[in-house]
Amino acid sequence: MTTKDIVLVALFAAIIVALGFLPPITLAFIPVPITAQSMGVMLAGTIIGAKRGAAAYVLVVLMVAIGLPVLAGGAGGLQKIIGPTGGYIIGWIFGAFVTGLVAERLVRDGQPEIRQYVGFFLASIVGGIVVVYAFGIAWLCFSTGTPVGKALIGNLAFVPGDLIKAVLATLAARAVLAGYPMLPSRA
Q: Which Gene3D superfamilies does the protein's record reference (predicted)?
């Protein structure tokens, strides 16, 4: 990793932590809150790429594991990783990587803007929603004994908000690509 890579990883870890300052929204029917930090998966992957985006989330998860209050609502600690939300937290790492990988494959400088928007949006959906939900639902079912069908239905409440996050991440990624075309150069 270059100095630029390390700086970008640290910067995005800080952005992810800052997104945690927004209070979580708790739903009565599922032990997983709605947080802004999941949008960081989409932002990190689309803006700084697969490896650096995943590295930023590894850094955040390590901070959570040692007990720093970096999750939404000031939460932290190993119990968050092994608790019902742990699959989503670990899924953030893989989600950021997949988001970045898809964005790296679909979006190129010099493409028509609409293709870039579509590429960033698809990357955000695949990595930031599908991958994160896959890890989260699997762990939720394992750790709580919740039936898969019930967990899938419970997660439907998150889809509209996550689609809005995907749109916001798409707009941000496109703006960064237009303003700083050398930033996304892959690590």
A: 1.10.1760.20
Q: What span, in angstroms and rounded, lies between the C-alpha atoms of 160 and 53?
A: 23
The residues spanned by each domain of the chain are: 3-179
The answer, yes or no, to whether residue 96 has pLDDT greater than 80, is yes
What does the block give as tokens for 93? Answer: 């790492």
What is the pTM for the complete model shown? Answer: 0.91
Contact residues for 71 (Cβ-Cβ < 8 A; gap 6+): 20, 35, 37, 64, 80, 89
Each residue of 16-47: b (16+ CB within 10 Å) or e? bbebbeeebeeeeebebbbbbbbbbbbbbbbb
Measure the CA–CA gap between 163 and 159, rounded to whole angstroms. Answer: 6
Site of tokens 């992810």: 16
- Pull the structure tokens for residue 58: 């590894």
CATH code of the domain made up of 3-179: 1.10.1760.20
> In this model, does residue 185 exceed pLDDT 70?
no
Distance, in Å, from the CA atom of 159 to the CA atom of 55, rounded to the nearest integer, reads 25
